[in-house]
């Protein structure tokens, strides 16, 4: 059997040959790409006047927030922001 360059089903003939994959579009390693993307995201957030808040909650509350967000068709962070805005406005009117 002759080796055909277009034959990709005969694996044993091509075991040592590198397969052509998706071309590398970024010279950075994946880890460095993620760092750069996160840094750029934080810059965009800052430029839009957004601040980051971290919050630790119990598993039940986390699941409830996810469920409410899914039912509302919004992200969890949007849901939490709406809840906080509503609560803050209630406090400021009292």
From TrEMBL:
<dbReference type="InterPro" id="IPR010985">
    <property type="entry name" value="Ribbon_hlx_hlx"/>
</dbReference>
<feature type="domain" description="Ribbon-helix-helix protein CopG">
    <location>
        <begin position="51"/>
        <end position="87"/>
    </location>
</feature>
<dbReference type="InterPro" id="IPR013321">
    <property type="entry name" value="Arc_rbn_hlx_hlx"/>
</dbReference>
<protein>
    <submittedName>
        <fullName>LexA family transcriptional regulator</fullName>
    </submittedName>
</protein>
<dbReference type="InterPro" id="IPR002145">
    <property type="entry name" value="CopG"/>
</dbReference>
<feature type="region of interest" description="Disordered">
    <location>
        <begin position="1"/>
        <end position="47"/>
    </location>
</feature>
<dbReference type="Pfam" id="PF01402">
    <property type="entry name" value="RHH_1"/>
</dbReference>
<feature type="compositionally biased region" description="Basic and acidic residues">
    <location>
        <begin position="1"/>
        <end position="20"/>
    </location>
</feature>
């Amino acid at each position: 059997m002759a080796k055909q360059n277009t034959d990709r089903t005969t694996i044993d003939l091509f075991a040592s040959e590198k397969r052509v994959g998706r071309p590398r579009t970024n010279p950075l390693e994946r880890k460095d790409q993620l760092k750069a993307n996160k840094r750029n995201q934080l810059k965009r957030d800052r430029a839009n006047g957004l601040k980051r808040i971290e919050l630790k909650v119990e598993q039940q509350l986390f699941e409830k927030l996810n469920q409410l967000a899914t039912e509302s068709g919004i992200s969890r962070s949007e849901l939490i922001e709406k809840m906080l805005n509503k609560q803050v406005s209630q406090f400021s009117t009292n």
